[in-house]
Input
Amino acid sequence: MSWYLIAAIFVVGIWGVIAIPNLIKKVIALSVANSAIIVFFVYYGSLSGRTAPILSPDAPAGVPPVDPLPQALMLTAIVVGVCITALALALIYRLYKRYGTLDARTIERAVWELDE
Amino acid sequence: MKRAVEIAAAAVVAVFLILALAGDHPTESPIREYIVAHGVDDTGAVNLVASIYLGYRAFDTLGETIVLLIAVSGVMFLVKRSKPPADRDGDL
Amino acid sequence: MRHKTDILDVAARKLAPYMFVFGLYLVTYGDLSPGGGFQGGVVIASGIILLAIAKSVDAVEELIPLRRFAVAETTTFGLLLAVGIGGIVAGAGFLADFIGRGAIGPLPAARFVYALNILIGAKVAAGASLICMHLFGEER
Amino acid sequence: MNSVALLVVLPFVGSLMGLAGKLARAPRFFSIAAVLPLVPMAGLLAMSLPAVRAGSVISYAMGGWPEPIGIVLHLDGLAWLSSVLIVVIAVAVCVASFCRTGYGSSFFFFLMILISGMQMVVLTGDIFTLFVSFEIVALAAYVLIAYDQTDAGLLASLKYLILSTVGILFFLFGVFLIYRDFGTLSLATIRTLASERGGPADGLTVTRSIHFAVAALCVGIGVRTAFIPFHTWLPEAHAYAPHPVSAILSGVVIKVSFLAMIRIVWTLSAGYLNELLLWIGAITSILAVIWALAQSDTKRLLAYHSISQMGYVLAAIGAATATSLTAGFSHAVNHALFKSLLFLVAGTAIRMTGERDLFRAPAIGRHSPILAAAFLVGALSISGIPPFNGFASKQLVGTALGGSPAYLLLRITAVGTMASFIKVSRIVVPVFRLSPRRVATPASIDPLVTGAVAPAGTLILFPAIFLALLCLLSGLFAPSLAAFYSDLLAPAALRQGSPVAIAVAQPGGLASLYKSAKLIETAIVIVAGWLLYRLVLTPPGKRIAGSIKRIAPELRTVLLYFVVGLGLFALFAYV
Output
């Protein structure tokens, strides 16, 4: 069941990227979809154990720790996601300053007709 | 009509995900067992996430910091300069 | 910020140092407890960003010039590469642990992970706050 | 052996130099320092050639951690070839970039990051590192596309960003599915695990979710490789990027991602995708050439041709016959050479005349005959005229495809390519100016007459001559080069479990390169191309071209195409 809930988050994100014309909201939707992927990994990792993957001497013995690999991978994925968001916002900002709108359709019409 | 196309697209993605996620999957992973057994000895970090992040997969981390570096310099480059570069091509 | 109140100002000023300390804690204890370079760096950066939002980017720039952030970002990247190449020079391979391990005690045992944590913490703190301050800074 | 790690590390050091130049305010010195690491990289590659040619794989474990635990770089024949391609094109592009003063050291920072990212893509044997390196390439590309800060550049960059981020999310989903089933991320380990689990008869009988994983990975990479229906970002991005950047994007970036895709398809032995790749390739090549024929913007036309020529590569690989791997690769290499050349010269022509529209631009032939000659070499290569390299690799692709019906589409594409290059050659040679549009440029404002053409600069001549010579030489020595390629590729393909017997080298197929039948066929293509060119310039032809040109899919439509492509790949995975 949880799988399908996470999948729903991903679908919502993708739908938002496709359907919402506002560029900022598109970027938000991308972040939502990205989060869904992160949750996929971390949830899968959490299935295999019970405690945090920190093997300090005072950790409870005998309880398996969760899979640390997805967590480490997702740290990287989070940073990459943040970087993409930042760059997208910078690009959108420049376009907004030039055209005064965030509507993808308006901007596209204006830009591609420039070189007709 | 436009809405219908969008919903159809979302439905394609949803079906894809549901079919892909279905089925039973093994939870044992040779890597996890190795890391839990040897992680602390190999890298000295008690926090296994840190031992993967900076030990076994430090190359990924280096790549990630490079991505961050590109993003920082890209944002600085795009946002700071308000006037166009001095030497412009005549082209658009 | 047009509607600035004293509450915001005071709260930000009081809160930010704690965020820095907490971030430093996360960075320096990243090999022993939950946390790490990236997480701690982000917490430090959010302290800086809080100051930038509550006061202004100029105020932060008075404290630390933005150029210094850029220098820090570049230097840490260079140091990370140097650590990696140091592994090659030491014969252990790129990004390999060539420092060795200390005993468990007052000094960190996992010296290599510890050093990388600090480098990445500094890099992320500088980078994340640079991104945000550039995006805010245009408001002027 | 450190050479493999250095291939990745050296460009990082170069990019650090670029950054230092930004901080130290000595851009010229640091720009040169930034690109210097390309020289030792070339040396390292040359040194590792004997070992690679002998079929061995040079591996390098990052941080000393062995394969399934850590990240290991592999330099095999496939990686070696692509690495050489990256370095060659990068050298040409860097020299060309120095020719314009506007590019500070930060430009070289992004360029070197792009190069190192591509090196990571070709060398890495780990799918998560593949994701990271794809993102390095992509972020550097986004910034470089927007480097001139024109509105079109910014929007093209944003379009590419959104589309390829959606793609990379699916890629990550594929990585997740693979990790869930195999518990490992290293391609070599996945390969062994997969063949243990399933009978080797039909490749692998892994779970269905692995098939979906392959589909997701292919879709994610497909956006970078830009075949139909994921091609939609490419024309704008490549057309409005700075000229040297267009050259490197069209030349190597799309090919490098394609390589990664082939690796994954082989490793997970998704042989069932071959048929799909074959047909997507054929359809891509013909549709893109129709689009290209309709363009009047020089760089857009070239960008559509990149899509079209990638279609050839895709079709050749998808055909999965004895020569197909060699054919696909030699076409990829040759395309990189001549397309970079074309973009560099066309960019210089645009810079000289300040006019992107090829109907209005004056020919630069009289001002810079060397550049014009280089451009013509590129144009002849891409249209498949002997003795240039395009002819050789297109014949090879023909041999690989054999009597497949898809080859018919490629033959029609050849005619279209011919026609559009007759059309685009008018930016360098005035001979082809037969169009009635000529009256649109009265002599009084003709830059040729008024002398408004800027000088080309001498530095651009070096990469132009260099690439043109490579085009000619790789055409003349095509048979031995093809044998060399298959020497390099066959062991790599076998090691990664390529499902078909691609390994067989067939230089015999090339011995008949200059047979009279093929020459007559080429002559027919030339005549047909000329006729098509004349046809496009007639009033009805222009009207059709105009309406095709106006089909510019907007962001929403582009994403819907993406979902269609996803459905297509998933369907093939499911059946």
Chain C has five helices and no strands.
